[in-house]
Amino acid sequence: MSGSILYIHGLNSAPGSMKASQLQAVMEQLGLAGQLRVPALHHHPREAIAQLEAAIAELGRPLLVGSSLGGHYATYLAERHGLKALLINPAVNPHQLFDGYLGTQTNHYTGETWELTHDHVQALAELEVAPPTDPARYQVWLQTGDETLDYRRAERYYRACVLRIEAGGDHSFQRFALHLPALLSFAGIDPQAYQSLDFSVF
Q1: Residue 14 in contact with residue 43, Cβ under 8 Å?
Q2: Count of CB atoms within 10 A of residue 130's CB?
Q3: Separation CA 177–CA 200 (nearest Å)
Q4: Can you say how many angstroms the Cα of residue 19 is from the centroid of all Cα atoms in its chain?
């Protein structure tokens, strides 16, 4: 489906997160809600990837938009299927970041609690791919004020890709709604469809 988008949220996030909600509101405003999927991902990477594979099969060749851990998933899937990916403060080598975090986790949006185990970490390691080298298929949006992930890890890993690095901001990616025209354009949606839209209201 031309112009379709698959949004991939991060760890302990949900479709109700700020960025996902803003993207959904814009797509609804444009009458394109049917071209967007924002699945509520299972906390286990293997389950989540199965959900995302099903969404890709449904949408055809969507733009993958991955935030944080969702950026790791998006990179794996983009390389596997030759898809375009837009990554927002993506996690790089996330299996290396979970030392000391094993045990009970709580989803910030749903309140669900679950156990982060060595099997989760192993599953993340299995999704590792070589750094992407096709700049036409990737955009990587980073904010240097990310308090959760060191943006320089992503800057190095995605150095062959199109990087958009903004000073300041935070892990949630401040002012995301104002960047949505660039996202829609990358997804292949006709700019005439949204040129009169005021993105500051979302």
Answers
A1: no
A2: 7
A3: 7
A4: 10
Q: What domain count does the chain have?
A: 1
* Helical pair 69-81 and 45-59, crossing angle rounded to 10 deg: 50
CB 107 within 8 A of CB 41: no
Cα 177–chain centre separation: 15
Per-residue pLDDT of 118-149, as tens digits, reads 999 999 999 999 999 999 999 999 999 999 99
Pull the structure tokens for residue 121: 């970490």
For the chain, list the strands marked E by DSSP. 5-8, 36-37, 63-67, 85-88, 103-106, 113-116, 138-143, 162-166
Inter-residue contact 120 to 72 (CB < 8 Å): no
The CATH number covering residue 18 comes to 3.40.50.1820
**Distance, C-alpha 192 to centroid of its chain:** 25
Expressed as residue numbers, the domain containing 176 is 5-201
Beta bridge partners of 104: 115
**143-184, pLDDT tens digit by residue?**
999 999 999 999 999 999 999 999 999 999 999 999 999 999
Q: Are strands 5-8 and 63-67 parallel, antiparallel or unpaired?
A: parallel
Q: Say how many CA atoms lie within 13 Å of 182 toward its Cβ.
A: 17
- Beta carbons of 74 and 65 less than 8 angstroms apart: yes
Distance CA(150)–CA(148), nearest Å, equals 7
